[in-house]
Write a structure and sequence with these properties.
Layout (H helix, E strand, L loop, with lengths): L3 E4 L5 H10 L1 E4 L8 H7 L5 E4 L7 H5 L6 E4 L9 H6 L3 E3 L6 H16 L2 H9 L20 E5 L3 H11 L4 E5 L6 H7 L1 E3 L2 H7 L2 E4 L13 H6 L5 E4 L8 H9 L5 E4 L10 H4 L4 E3 L8 H19 L11
Parallel strand pairs: 1-2, 1-3, 3-4, 4-5, 6-7, 6-9, 7-8, 9-10, 10-11, 11-12
Bound molecules: (2R)-2,3-dihydroxypropanoic acid.
Length: 320
């Protein structure tokens, strides 16, 4: 008999076929997010769960699923899952690292350029018919060459951002609980420093840390007060790492110059004041949204799920 699996949202069509062949699939019917009540009801007889970062897999959900063997998250971040509780119940948890590194790093650079050179603001200006000819002081922005990029979290994505940043002649400083190998630091031209020093020295600060209790509100009022008033803040990691209300304040009071955000503290809600600020670029959590990457994420999640259901050690097992 095939294992019973709940899929909370359709995967890309070409991957769906491969999953349907292997398992008895129950697919959430709606195009929108799976309502919690429905998740709780449908999980009860399943051995596998394939879910997304928008699904909160907490104790209540896990307790409803006595037969559950594996939770395969189609994302690298696993902050939506109670990992410790899953582990205590002997349930495997997997994620989709590596495959989204390059796409997310690309988007980070796009946000750096968009904020430093005011691209979105300038685009709006053209569409509103305001471009009446070249002007010496029209949309002046920040040049990247020679500026300091501070990377918070120097894992796969942080390093991929550093690689790209070198091509723009940015000087790279970074902070991570674990200092990188000296050879890698040399290869990337990256200098390790404390968080405090990073806030003080960086012209551009980019967040690439996972969301954990330790990184929740890692950047709040106190940290903004240490930054340069010309600083640009980029977040393509997880919204709650940044205190969004403190960010609004910092932008309003000129404590920093601009922000580029792909993620939000209470996603999909966005602090209303950010919506009317010209010095903020807002994206709808699309860091990994390329055809290639999303396909690879779906394939990785399915592979992990099937390995776990067969009793094998999944390739991307999350260690707690
Ligand atoms: C992730 O995978 O955690 C990203 O936020 C979405 O791809």
């Amino acid at each position: 008999m095939k294992p019973r699996v709940l899929l909370t949202h359709p995967l890309l069509p070409e991957v769906m076929d491969c999953l349907e062949k292997e398992v008895e699939l129950e697919l959430a019917t709606s195009e929108a997010l799976l309502p919690r009540e429905e998740l709780l009801a449908r999980i009860s007889d399943k051995q596998g769960l394939l879910c997304f970062l928008t699904d909160q897999i907490d104790r209540e959900v896990i307790d409803r699923a006595p037969e559950l063997k594996i939770i395969a998250n189609c994302a690298v971040g696993v902050n939506n899952i109670d990992l410790k509780y899953a582990r205590s119940r002997g349930i495997l948890v997997t994620n989709t690292p590596d495959v989204l590194t390059e796409a997310t790093a690309d988007l980070t650079l796009a946000l750096i350029l968009a904020t430093a050179r005011r691209l979105v603001e300038a685009d709006r200006f053209c569409r509103q018919g305001k471009f009446l000819g070249w002007q010496i002081d029209l949309f002046l922005g920040q040049e990247l060459t020679g500026r300091v990029l501070g990377i918070i979290g120097f894992g796969r994505i942080g390093r991929a951002v550093a690689r790209r940043a070198r091509a723009f002649n940015l000087k790279i400083i970074y902070h991570d609980p674990q200092r990188a190998d000296i050879l890698l630091e040399r290869e990337l031209g990256a200098e390790f420093c404390s968080l405090e020093e990073l806030f003080q020295r960086a012209d551009i600060i980019s967040i690439h840390a996972p969301l954990t209790p330790q990184t929740h509100h890692l950047i709040s009022r106190k940290e903004f007060s240490m930054m340069k008033n010309t600083a640009i803040l980029i977040n393509t990691a997880r919204g709650p790492i940044l205190d969004e209300k403190a960010l609004v304040e910092a932008l309003k009071n000129g404590k920093i110059q601009a922000a580029g955000l792909d993620v939000y503290e209470n996603e999909p809600s966005i602090e209303p004041e950010l919506l009317s600020m010209d010095n903020v670029v807002l994206l709808p959590h699309i860091g990994s949204a390329t055809f290639e990457t999303r396909r690879k994420m779906c394939l990785a999640a399915v592979k992990n799920l099937l390995q776990g259901l067969r009793g094998e050690r999944p390739e991307n097992l999350v260690e707690v």
